[in-house]
Amino acid sequence: MTPIRHNGSAGSDNDAVLDAVRDCVLAVGVRRTTLTDVARRAGVSRMTLYRRWPDVRSLVGDLMTREWIAVATGAMPERGPDMTARALLTKGLVDAVRDFVTHPLFRKILDVDPELLLPYVLDRRGASQEALLELLAGVLREGHADGSVRRAPVERQARSVLLIVQSFTLSLRTMTDEEDPELSAEAFLGELRGILERTLTP
């Protein structure tokens, strides 16, 4: 949920550094992670990192972008021959929320450094949000074409759907009570499925 930065280096090199950042953040949180720690774990010099990223927060921003896009796109099911766009989107979004709320990095940031997410909730959209809107818009257009999704201006519809899904992702744990089956995370995901079905059905 943060802007992608183009650092001019090979993707595999970036991935090695981002993997090191992820390990550091999972171990000690963002505020206690240093570029020295990341460089040591990644097997690169500090100057190599400084040439690409000015500080730890910019590194973590790129890490969040990579991880969040991977979760969202990975949750989308394979399109079966009889699966409508609405069915694909509803299942994919519910599964994505489930995967987000159990994702180790997402949980660590919510527990230790939640302020990192606030700009992308209150002030501006980030790169992963833009990528998700593009994905949503594409499937919604397919749904308009196959008749399974209520017709509406695609960009507005995509943003509205993302608002719904984002609220469940960020706040689900504040509403659940796992001792009560009717208030469990899975029960709320069932509600989310129903909300999406109702808002998307023509």
Q: Rg from C-alpha positions?
A: 19 Å
Globular, elongated, flat, extended or rod-shaped: what is the shape? Answer: globular
The largest sheet, given as strand count, sense and whether it forms a barrel, is: none
Instruction: Please give the oligomerization state of what you see.
Output: single chain
Task: Report helical residue fraction.
Answer: over 70%
Enumerate the spans where pLDDT stays under 50 for 5 or more consecutive residues.
1-10
Instruction: Give the CA-CA distance, first to last residue.
Output: 31 Å
Number of strands: 0
Q: How are helices and strands ordered from N to C?
A: HHHHHHHHHH
Q: From the helix content, strand content and strand pairing, which structural class follows?
A: mainly alpha
The mean pLDDT is 91
Strand content: under 5%
Number of helices: 10
Compact overview of the structure:
InterPro entries: Homeodomain-like_sf, HTH-type_TetR-like_transc_reg, HTH_TetR, Tet_transcr_reg_TetR-rel_C_sf. The protein has 202 residues and is mostly helical. Helices cover 70% and strands 0% of the residues.
Describe this structure in words.
- The protein has 202 residues and is mainly α.
- The chain has ten helices and no strands.
- Helix 4 (56-75) runs parallel beside helix 8 (127-146).
- The radius of gyration is 19 Å and the shape is globular.
- Residues 1-10 have low confidence and may be disordered.
- Residues 34-53 bind DNA.
